[in-house]
Amino acid sequence: MLRLVKNELYKVFRLRKFYLFMGAILALQLVEIFQYKFLPQGKVVFPLNGQSFPLEMIGGNSIIMVMFIAVLVADMFADEYRNGSFKLVLLRPVSRIQFISAKAIALLASIMAIVCFTVITAYITGTIVFTWGNQLLFQGVPIDGNSIAITLKLTIASILPSAGFGMLVIFIALITENIGITIGSALALFIISPLLERYGNISNYSIIHLMNTFHEMFINNATLVQIYAKIVVIIAYVVLFYISSAIFMKRKDVLL
To answer: What one-character-per-residue DSSP string does 188-247 give?
Structure first.
């Protein structure tokens, strides 16, 4: 199993697409900085500093994260199924559950890597442009406490719903066996999610909505009950679509 995970990690981190998304994240940060620096002073929505910039980028990074997960999963599943890589692995003494698990672990590792890259580069670019600042701010509101510890907590919180979304996209990729449909379905979910807010509590069960808002609960005075309720929803996505993917994979004939 460990060798299988290492193989999947090697395949993920050697992809050019992975590093292209890193470039896109850095470009997005520079665009945010450019807009902030060149907006007329009266139109600046809220002040920024170096220690606060990572929080803004975590919150504004969901579209890139959705695209990153969709493209990566499409490559890991739909493309490998199309080019026959599935057969090569499953002809060895590897169970299909191990196969799915190794790919899920590799996906989680890549999500963690891309989120950590976002935070680290945001610290660097934000501090260079804005200086470190005297206090952590979130959308202009001062936050008491250790700024690095708070940012670390929100970073971890942002990874959880992305993992849930990743398992959903894995299931879509296994069913469709098509790169375009997998990526298109993920983007469609992102576009549809804001529309669910019109229907009240339905949006609370949207994994895209959780990708946008879950981390904010830790600085918006949410109660433990509210936080645990969201964690249960995220875990439900992970478990439900992992089990569904495993069952589908066990029944799927990929060796023909």
So the answer is: HHHHHHHHHGGGGGGGGG-HHHHHHHGGGGGTTT--HHHHHHHHHHHHHHHHHHHHHHHH
Q: Are 166 and 242 in contact (CB under 8 A)?
A: no
Task: Quick: pLDDT tens for 107-152.
Answer: 999 999 999 999 999 999 999 998 998 889 888 788 888 999 999 9
Do the Cβ atoms of 114 and 22 come closer than 8 Å? yes
Q: Work out how many domains the chain is built from and give that number.
A: 1
Residue 113 lies in a domain: yes
- For 157-215, the pLDDT digits (tens) are 999 999 999 999 999 998 988 889 999 999 999 988 877 766 667 778 899 999 988 99
Evaluate whether 59 touches 176 at the Cβ level (below 8 Å): no
Round to whole Å and give the CA distance between 92 and 97: 13
Cβ-based neighbour number of residue 130 at 10 Å: 18
> What is residue 199's predicted lDDT score, i.e. its pLDDT?
66
Q: Do 159 and 61 touch, CB atoms closer than 8 A?
A: no
Q: Quick check: is 80 in a domain?
A: yes
Contact 65, 214 (CB under 8 A): no
CA atoms of 174 and 169, how far apart (whole Å): 9
The CA distance from 248 to 255, in Å, is 14
CA distance 121 to 127: 10
**What tokens appear for 164 in the block?**
């849930």
- Does residue 10 lie in a domain region? yes
Whether the predicted model's global pTM rises above the 0.85 cut: yes
What's the pLDDT score for residue 43? 53
- The residue segments making up the domain with residue 131 are 2-251
Supply 156's token pair: 């971890």
Q: Is residue 256 part of a domain?
A: no
